[in-house]
């Protein structure tokens, strides 16, 4: 009987304030979707940085047996690598460095272009076709000429790539989109919280007679507030479902269906990244509706 009353009040509350609930759902849906996009863009930026390095890095590619550079007479030797490491390590502009082997570089290429191109009797390339490299992280992105001039003429160094020219514009664009989506989401979240508060106030006013009677017969605050909490759960569930659906559609039709083929040189986010964004949205949605509901019902249910 008690549960029947709770679900009856839930249905009446949803019907009575249908327009307000729709407004909350739409606002929350857009907010959560933008938060999800912000998370996906952040993960996309991390993937790009892992593939190409950050704008704080320069990369020195070492000589290999098939190098086109005339100064490279063959594969870089261990002695040459030791000399290069000593120069990089002692340079005051260096914050950190790491060597990347042929095998690691080959795995990156296979992940980017697809492993099927590098299998079979006539692969597009092998690990031996790729050079070893030194990834150097700078202390200051504007101070790089010293380390470049120190290693560019060393034996065993083929050429140097400045990541700021290659990766800088891409990472900057991703950061701007991420900040824009998160910033817009914050404003919309505030709007959703105000709408939740107004919905609770109107619902409590509409049920003031029932609430007064329940108070007189000794009903607990939690029991009286339960329909309001269930309304918040329903609102959050619908908003989360819509948001996750849009994010999933973007991943399937946008990233997998279009961008992966059109812009194949970029390592795109995948299902694990989408799953992390979906989990965050699924957690954030109920928090944004249940917390204000818990706080405001204590105020508006006092008769």
Summarize the structure.
This protein is an alpha+beta fold and 303 residues long. It is 68% helix and 8% strand.
Number of helices: 10
Q: Encode the helix/strand succession as letters.
A: HHEHEHEHEHHHHH
Helix content: 55-70%
Largest sheet: 4 strands, antiparallel
| Strands, count | 4
Query: How far is the first residue's CA from the last residue's CA?
Result: 24 Å
Strand content: 5-15%
Structural category is alpha+beta
What spatial order of strands do you see in the largest sheet?
2-3-1-4
- Using only C-alpha atoms, the radius of gyration works out to 29 Å
Q: What is the 3D shape?
A: elongated
Mean of the pLDDT scores?
80
Q: Poorly predicted ranges (pLDDT <50, ≥5 residues)?
A: none
Question: What do you see in this structure?
Answer:
By secondary structure, the protein is α+β, with helices and mostly antiparallel strands. Helices cover 68% and strands 8% of the residues. The protein has 10 helices and 4 strands, in the order H-H-E-H-E-H-E-H-E-H-H-H-H-H. A 4-stranded antiparallel β-sheet has the order 2-3-1-4. Helix 1 packs across helix 9 (221-262). The longest helix has 42 residues, at 221-262. The chain is elongated. It starts with a helix and ends with a helix. The model has no long low-confidence stretch (mean pLDDT 80).
